[in-house]
Amino acid sequence: MQFVNNLLLNMELNPKLVEPLAIIIKILLIGMICIVANFISKKIVIRIITRIVTNSKVKWGKIILEKQVFRKLSHMVPAIIVYSLASTFSTYKLFIEKLAISYIIIVGLVFIQSLLNAFNDIYQTFEISKVKPIKGYIQVVNIIIMTVGVILVTSNLIGKSPLILLSGIGALSAVLMLVFKDSLLGLVAGIQLASNDMVRVGDWIEMPKYGANGDVLDISLNTVKVQNFDKTITMIPSYVLISDSFINWRGMQSSGGRRIKRTLNIDTSSITFCTDEMIEKFVKVDYLSDYIIQKEMEIQEYNAKNQIDRNNPVNGRALTNIGVFRAYISNYLKNHDGINQNMTLMVRQLAHSEHGLPLEIYAFTNSVQWAVYETVQSDIFDHLFAVAPEFGLKVFQNPAGADLRKMKDDSSNQALIRGRSN
């Protein structure tokens, strides 16, 4: 740089122009050096590093390249050059050094953040990331790093010790608590969610209050991202999962079976004792033949032992069409390919109501997939609705418009017949 000053003086220029020209030339030279250094670091060094990482067998190397960790670090090279040559401008040396150091700190913060984000992406390649996500913790570390970075940059620009600024943070704690309220609540919630294993990425959760019913895509410091089954996205605050209740269907998914719990309401007026003709018909049904033979033997032995007079159907024991139908449903489910036979399976009566006698089917499918579950459930009830009349039973249904019109037509016909007879 002294050579530049001497060269300009030897050119016998106006002494007033020597100093400004020297500064301009020095700036241009330093700018050229920074451009060359930046070109070398990005076009040569980073390409060599990229080729080495690409050819290596390390899986997470590609993630670091995608996050451009080394490229962001290369921005520090021009700043280091400017800082090293700040003494060239004696008048502005201190100011230039402060700017260069501030820029180096900012680049360092960006580098650390991208390195942490790359670490999070690497961690997500392991199965444990679904059980113990760390994205919330990394976001907390990023906030701390940003806070420290702001303090360091500010202290460097004003020329004061960072400890002086740190001592003033105590007075701003109330403001910080207010500003970072959601982040702090999210941090506490994230720790509780992870330690208690309440929710994982990939879980199916249901939270009607927030319109969430779908799979968890992401768990961050402040929010939990849920993709609903209609492909919409719902963002739920993390701390809400601690303060409010929600349904996690993970237990059902891991059990290997999904519950069917649905009732079939039978019209009580159609319930009756089985006649001999009905029993002969039921014996020919595959799922009922063994049951009918066994029950008939039990009933005959009981009635004979107790000398029951069966001329009156009220006396003694007898089969009913509702009981036979219940046994049929149970045997039908036990032989159904879509029902998990290793889990609870039963057909029971619930309390009678104004809607008839409910027969509840309680069973589990052998698949937890939604489409398969709905198909199996629909197939079962399609069959039961169709087969119920074969047992002399009617499925309860409130009178519809067609029923009312039929009643009106019947009453009109009866009135017409009576009028003609008169």
TrEMBL record:
Protein name: Mechanosensing system component YbdG
GO biological process: cellular response to osmotic stress
A cellular component annotation (GO) from this entry: plasma membrane
Entry keyword Transmembrane helix: yes
Species for this entry: Neobacillus notoginsengisoli
Molecular function via GO: mechanosensitive monoatomic ion channel activity
Membrane-protein topology: Multi-pass membrane protein
InterPro entries membership: LSM_dom_sf, MscS_beta-dom_sf, MscS_channel_2nd, YbdG
PANTHER family in the cross-refs: MINICONDUCTANCE MECHANOSENSITIVE CHANNEL YBDG
Pfam families membership: MS_channel_2nd
